[in-house]
Amino acid sequence: MADTDIPDDLRYTREDEWTRVDGNRVTVGITDYAQQQLGDIVFVELPEVGKSLEQGDPFGVIESVKAVSDLYAPVSGEVVEVNDSLGESPEVVNADCYGDGWMVVIQVADASALDDLIDPVAYAQHVKERAE
Question: What separation in angstroms does the CA of 35 have from each of 95, 96, 118?
């Protein structure tokens, strides 16, 4: 847990996605904890721009040498950007999960859904509980 990076300027989900809120847009990726648990990322499947997402529903798949996991929408809305470079270089998620390893940008349908995201302190506690 001590070596897990949990930036203070992001909000999180209990499914190990991080979100960077910018007005009514949310950039989404997986957390440092998630990429550590998965191991070497070998494939990322993301939705098309324009796809409507419902909060909590799967929007893509991430595959590592250890496991295949669904990616879950932290908020409802429309996908307005997709990190297409992950198709060619999925390992970027391991190298820079909070930067170049971002996955999608969602135009938020209802800003109140942002209240469902957890702060860094609560996420750190969530990670700690699972690690014990």
Answer: 9, 10, 19
- Rounded CA-CA distance 40/66 in Å is 8
CATH number at residue 39: 2.40.50.100
Contact 49, 58 (CB under 8 A): no
What global pTM score does this model have? 0.94
**87 CB-near residues (< 8 Å, 6+ apart):** 44, 46
Q: Quick check: 79 and 87 in contact, CB under 8 A?
A: no
Tokens 């909070």 belong to residue: 98
- Rounded distance between C-alpha atoms, residue 59 and residue 44, angstroms: 11
pLDDT profile of the chain (132 residues), mean per 10: 85 97 96 96 97 96 95 97 97 97 97 93 95 79
Domain of residue 34, residue span? 11-131
**Side chain identity, residue 65:** V
Pairing of strands 77-82, 25-30: unpaired
